[in-house]
Amino acid sequence: MSLRIAALGLLTQYPGSGYDLLKRFEQSMANVWPATQSQLYGELNKLANAGLIEVSDIGPRGRKEYRVTEAGRAELVRWISNPQDDPPVRRPDVLRVFLLGDVAPQVARDYVTTFAEHATADLKRYEQLRDSVNWQDKDSDFYSRAALEFGIQNAAMELRWAHWLVSAIDERARR
Amino acid sequence: MSLRIAALGLLTQYPGSGYDLLKRFEQSMANVWPATQSQLYGELNKLANAGLIEVSDIGPRGRKEYRVTEAGRAELVRWISNPQDDPPVRRPDVLRVFLLGDVAPQVARDYVTTFAEHATADLKRYEQLRDSVNWQDKDSDFYSRAALEFGIQNAAMELRWAHWLVSAIDERARR
DNA sequence: TGGTGCATGTAACCTGTTACATGATTCG
DNA sequence: CGAATCATGTAACAGGTTACATGCACCA
């Protein structure tokens, strides 16, 4: 359901072709909702069949430029206002933690330090992104920035938690 | 890949039938990795075919009790030590934030407050769980507790971030 | 003996991934 | 004219959801 919306949302910001959209997915949306080329083209056809977007122009090489319809805008609002039917978020990294009691202590501790390294790398990457983008005073930038801030806060929280857990593991081993 | 591991991990803690496992998924694992009955039974057969678990006993009503094999334990360690091939985490709630510039300001603000309410509810639920469980001094409890702590820290972070964002939205509207 | 719980399975559908496939245009 | 890039599509597979389907065993 959500890729559908991600595409709809980007097309709301600017119209474009599947190819254009694919590049916008790679740059600006990669951290939020990655999508493959294959999936995107399929979804655009479904969106068009459902009347949520329409072909506004046909260019060279069979290029189809899409734009959002009124029904599409309504669907976007409907989806944003109904967060309750999101699928559950599954985090393999937290599943690992849950199962660390099943493996040798050294494997468990090593995993937590790896987790901390990942969080550190993510934090740095997000901070660099924040500092390198030339943010404009428009709504789309404001909310991209807010989503990025979420990523930063999330990575920082993960890092703190992982450090706490490493200490707790060492503490426990010392008994 | 991960449900496979979740089942393997639970069976490592105690052997049991699909039905047993299903109940353990509902109680202890629901917050970490939800699974449906249908999926679980299919996965147990696949695990058995792959030699990662084996039927240790057959009881009444065709009950098959499974236990983990040596190959299964090795696979668990392998998976825990290879976090780099996890699929990307997709969060519909963050996607929403990213797209809030496409909708009316009131819809956007309302969503962020709803997000904050969700985080508050999650936080309360996790804290109650933490305080109601009789934690034992064993590894599986230690790491369940650590995973739960992750949930708590995560919910707290989400709440702080959402409050910050509401303030930022109001600030911005005032200009 | 009849209901509840134990116990397992299948089918249809949706989302996502990887790989394969094809062709038109532009530019150097 | 040839290479890079623009541009779209299909097929096969893996994981997850909902719904459907079946039957045995225990106990009141």
Textual characterization of the structure:
2 copies of one chain form a homodimer. Chain A is mostly helical. Chain A folds into 2 domains: about 5-85, Winged helix-like DNA-binding domain superfamily/Winged helix DNA-binding domain (Arc Repressor Mutant, subunit A), CATH 1.10.10.10; about 90-175. Chain A is built from 7 helices and 2 strands, in the order αααββαααα. Chain A has helices spanning about 1-15, 20-30, 35-50, 70-80, 90-100, 105-130, 140-175; strands at about 55-60, 65-70. A two-stranded antiparallel ribbon of chain A has the order 1-2. In chain A, helix 1 (about 1-15) crosses helix 4 (about 70-80) and helix 6 runs antiparallel to helix 7 (about 140-175). Chains A and B meet through helix 1, helix 4, helix 5, helix 6 and helix 7 of A and helix 1, helix 4, helix 5, helix 6 and helix 7 of B.
Please give a quick description of this structure.
2 copies of one chain form a homodimer. Chain A is mostly helical and 175 residues long.
Give the helix/strand layout.
Two copies of one chain form a homodimer.
Chain A: H1 2-13, H2 18-29, H3 37-49, E1 53-58, E2 64-68, H4 70-80, H5 92-98, H6 105-132, H7 139-173
Antiparallel strand pairs in A: 1-2
The structure holds a DNA duplex (28 and 28 nucleotides).
- Total strands of chain A: the figure is 2
Question: For the record, what is the CATH homologous superfamily label of the largest domain in chain A?
Answer: Winged helix-like DNA-binding domain superfamily/Winged helix DNA-binding domain
Uncertain segments of chain A:
none
Q: How does the major sheet of chain A shape up?
A: 2 strands, antiparallel
Bin the helical content of chain A.
55-70%
In quaternary terms, these chains amount to homodimer
The chain-level mean pLDDT of chain A equals: 97
How far apart the termini of chain A lie comes to 50 Å
Measured on Cα atoms, how large is the radius of gyration of chain A?
21 Å
Please give the count of helices of chain A: 7
CATH topology of the largest domain in chain A: Arc Repressor Mutant, subunit A
Q: What is the H/E order of chain A? A: HHHEEHHHH
Query: Biggest chain pair contact, residues each?
Result: A-B, 65 and 65 residues
Helices and strands of chain A: which structural class?
mainly alpha
Q: What top-tier CATH class of the largest domain in chain A fits best?
A: Mainly Alpha
